[in-house]
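Fig. S4 source data, part A: sequence.
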Amino acid sequence: MERTSQNNNQKPVNVSSFKIKCASTTIGKSSGGGFYYDIEKIIGHDDWAPDHNKHDIALIRVTKDFVFFEGHFGREALWPICMPKEYTEYVGTATVAGWGLNASVTHATMVRLQATDIDLFNCRKAKCGCHEYTTFDDIVMICAGSTRGRAETCQSDAGGPLMAYNRVADGKDYAVLIGIVSLGEGCTESGKPGVYVDLSYHMPWLRAKISPDEVKNIKLSDITIKIGVTSFGDSAAKNFYIEKLFVHPEFEYEHYKMDIALIKVNSTIQYTVGKETGILGRASVWPICMPGNNTFFEGNATVAGWGLNQSDSSQAQVKLLAVDIKLFSCFFASCICYKAYNVFDDNYMICAGYEKGKADACQGDSGGPLMANNQRSDGNFNVIQIGIVSYGEGCAEPDKPGIYSDLSMLMPWVLNTIHPEKVYYAEANNSDKDGFESIPKEELIVKSGSLSIRKGTGKDHKVIEYILHEDFHTDHYANDIALIKVNPPFEYSKGQKFGRNSVWPICMPKQDAYYLGDVTAAGWGLNKSDGTAAMTNLQAADINIFDCREDCYCKSAYTQIFKDDIMLCAGHEQGKIDACQGDSGGPLMGLKADSEGEEIVLQVGVVSYGEGCAEALKPGVYADLPTLMPWVAQKIQPDTFLLPK
């Protein structure tokens, strides 16, 4: 029988019928002593589910504050237990307590609090008894018990504490809550240890839920934003206050992905007048450039902050410090950061520092900028913020570089959060700008009946609605498709399918149809990767769709994001001809004979992504339109059910 705190096969109960009893080691109203607290709210972990029991943890908020007694332990004493540090591994023995059964065959819980000492098993370095449970995960769970079948936890102990003792500087031992009773089999069977929630892993979640409007226990209303100075005590600083905080909705302390937030201040920031004297220097205020979407940087970068200058110091810096560090390429699992941190993910993060340590960011630098120089087409340089200080272990330790949020991967979220009413696109030439331009949806124009993008040609249609695929994200490019509704509607050419000023719909593919062979990609993008201007007239290129059901060039070139079940791989083995920057969203077309033997043009794909333009062994990747047809049909006619082919 599992002894879980949330999956106990009992009927739902109103929390108002429960009370929290404190300062007593006995249960029951008739037992003496103790104080009762009413429950105001129960907060369960969002990612808990009974099929895996991960994150088997909940918080209880009582209606009034606890009043602690002087003296730490004893009858009718009340004292808080210490919390563990984040991601701390405990070894040796620990103590578990509860009022549960004292044997698997009994049916009555204990009246008095029971406790027993058990062994902590290291399941991360070797297989342990807990691996017999199919749901056991040594990253988020602790395995503890006795190989000799001594007393352990039992049914109804779920939710109780697993405690260890930690000796501090004054020589005293303090009890630390390291785990929570979660699941197990039976009570004392030899070789059947119990599973506990690893509280050190969940400490970030606890802090976020206890104080969602606070940063490290500091209220947002107490935070001051200082600009125009490099020293905390400089009286020349201009002070701003936080009006609103935007935290990335997918950020979690347990993995540190999407470790970014936006701050809206209470008034507009004024930049320094005069580029020559005002961009850099004391009392200067100037915006930093943003990176292009999904841009890869290499070489060196600079990180800045007011954090500690060594891991064992206790005082942050008064003056702004900066250090140059090395950017590591982490496309492969052999990267130094993959070896150092099990939560590192190069799709969202940058690895930077030195193999031997000595220079890096430190505690207190989190949230600060990681900056790189970018040479513009005129030969001058722009400073670009490419990352945000996120996490690390210690400060500048060997083989443990710092981890930074990859800002280029987060730019779509940044821009959509700042201007949710606008549509964003990456310009073909982004070397002189922030990498993005934005225009309101109402100013978007769709042109028909012309092969030129020049004004005055063809017919203009305003965009009145656009629908993005709900599962699209720039970190993987799956489902890279959108629909646009225009006004006025398109008017098709009478009796003229092709030629100048003609407008005719393209045929859509059958659901889940599979296409190979020769196709044509079209667009107004660059004609080479180092180009500086998009094409004025429509260009087209004949390319080949590769069979990726077993292996193909795209699987080798884009190992982490290419998915052959929803993407097409097309180009030439030697490169030279393919789509390029600025062609994204354009059609990939093929010819097929209809029932009467006449050739018709089918759109089989949508230009999505690639590396460079027409490089050898690096074909372009296209959204596979046949697999997306059910989504297209449902969005166009939401009240119509699309039957499989």
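Fig. S4 source data, part B ends here. The chain has six helices and 31 strands.
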